[in-house]
Write a structure and sequence with these properties.
The protein has five helices and 26 strands. With 442 residues, it is α+β, with helices and mostly antiparallel strands. The chain is elongated and about 110 Å long. The protein starts with a helix and ends with a helix. It binds zinc ion. Zinc ion binds next to loops.
């Protein structure tokens, strides 16, 4: 009876040690998942999605977003028109017989998401870029027209004060016209007078502006306020080769940091942001992170020494499609954000001057997002790889080895203890048998 109790106690002890080791091992194996949970919540505490913002407003394909000097948000969308595989012919020409988009394509919203103004009907054929400069002028790019248009702030202001009917007449009549047009309508080209599907505009405080050109060309142009060309640089990168400094594969969006004298270009298909000195177009720096951001960068915005960018989906890279915040000096990823899940096709991003508000528009889902960021959050750089992003509690390789050794040791001790117990019992049985034998024999 005593031996039976002893055996049971040994078994319980061994089972307890093994389950302890198993729990430790499971903790180790599940650490990544747990850390990811903390990680994602940490990001969302920094930058929060406002799920109610503009949720009831209907858009077509949303291609661009920009913030005006009053903090209102301009959104450029395509109404009922969709950019499909047959929209352009092989020569990048759009069939102008399709006519302009009949619906309003520019919507101005306030910070709460309330609609302030809607205009742009019968003016645009395939909207792409929208930049509202510091004076409130609207700069748009239309990839079907192959043109850049500037609409003056004064004209936009007049429209705000009109009744709906007058607004419609003003918008559709001859009253509202661009004050500056660059490029030749419907005629793609690659010279001083023509663009080919220009993507975006960035405007300096003195009125000089940059144009990224574009889907078929691979260059950046700088103009003065009158529209006279000052600079041009860039050529197409070679597929399969590491892109050189001054090459592009779809320069898709622009952002200016006037205080740093830098222009940032979202070099979309090369998955990078490249920066250039705004005064002369000289290369400054490349920002790229294949493991976390992936091979596609769609748009970039700048505020207070931080870059805000959005990436895109790619079947070869398992990355989250979302927004990223980078330190402009180190290039480190400081934060990441999304609307509770990965985005589908984010196309443009805008950030307020103090960085407190971030807006992202999704092309194919026809959605706009507002995110709020606590300003001046002091935090060290976030990890650079996706594995590290999922594991921000930063268990080091040494710690992993120690933890593994601990688990192995515990299992080993448990096995030794059980073996020792079995051997002891076996020896005792032998002794008892011998004793019994001796007693019996005697
Ligand atoms: Zn685009």
């Amino acid at each position: 009876m005593v031996h039976l109790q002893y055996n049971i106690a040994c078994c319980i002890l061994v089972l307890f040690i093994l389950s302890l080791a198993k729990a430790n091992f499971q903790y180790y194996m599940n650490f990544k998942h747990t850390a990811k949970y903390f990680s994602e919540n940490k990001f969302r505490l920094d930058i929060e999605w406002d799920s109610q913002w503009a949720k009831d407003i209907k858009f077509g394909q949303v291609s661009a977003v920009s913030i005006d000097p009053c903090g209102n948000i301009g959104i450029f969308h395509r109404g009922s028109r969709v950019w499909g595989s047959t929209t352009f012919n092989i020569e990048n020409k759009f069939d102008e017989r399709k006519g302009p988009i009949h619906e309003d394509t520019i919507i101005l919203l306030d910070k709460s998401g309330k609609k302030l103004l809607e205009w742009g009907a019968h003016k645009f054929y395939l909207p792409h870029g929208l930049t509202i400069d510091m004076h409130g002028n609207y700069w748009i790019t239309d990839v079907a027209l192959h043109q850049v248009h500037k609409y003056d702030a004064e004209d936009i202001e007049i429209m705000k004060g009109l009744s709906d009917l007058r607004k419609k007449q003003y918008n559709q009549g001859k009253s509202l016209k661009p004050s500056l047009i660059l490029g030749e309508a419907f005629k793609p080209g690659n010279d001083d007078k023509r663009f080919c599907k220009p993507t975006a505009v960035a405007v300096e405080n003195n009125g000089d502006f940059f144009v990224s050109d574009g889907y078929c060309n691979a260059r950046i142009l700088k103009f003065n306020a009158k529209g006279e060309k000052l600079l041009e640089w860039g050529r197409r990168s070679i597929y399969g080769q590491i892109p050189l400094q001054n090459t592009f594969n779809v320069p898709h969006a622009l952002a200016l940091a006037s205080e740093l004298n830098l222009l940032f270009v979202a070099d979309r298909e090369n998955g990078r942001i490249t920066s250039f000195y705004a005064t002369n177009g000289t290369f400054h720096k490349e920002y790229k992170n294949l493991s976390t951001i992936g091979p596609l960068v769609y748009s970039v915005a700048y505020a207070k020494e931080r870059l805000y960018l959005i990436n895109g989906p790619n079947s070869h890279y398992n990355v989250h499609v979302r927004g990223f915040v980078l330190d402009v000096n180190s290039g480190d990823i400081l934060s990441q954000f999304d609307p509770g899940q990965d985005m589908d096709s984010p196309h443009d991003i805008a950030v307020s001057q103090n960085g407190s508000e971030i807006y992202v528009v999704e092309l194919n889902k026809n959605i706009t997002y507002k995110f709020s960021q606590k300003t001046n959050p002091h935090r060290g750089p976030a990890p650079l790889t996706d594995a590290d992003v999922n594991n921000p509690l930063a268990i080091s390789t040494t710690e992993k080895i120690i933890l593994t050794l601990f688990v192995v040791t515990v299992i080993f001790i448990g096995l030794c203890a059980s073996l020792a117990a079995v051997l002891t019992r076996s020896q005792e049985r032998d002794c008892v048998s011998i004793e019994r034998y001796i007693v019996h024999d005697a």
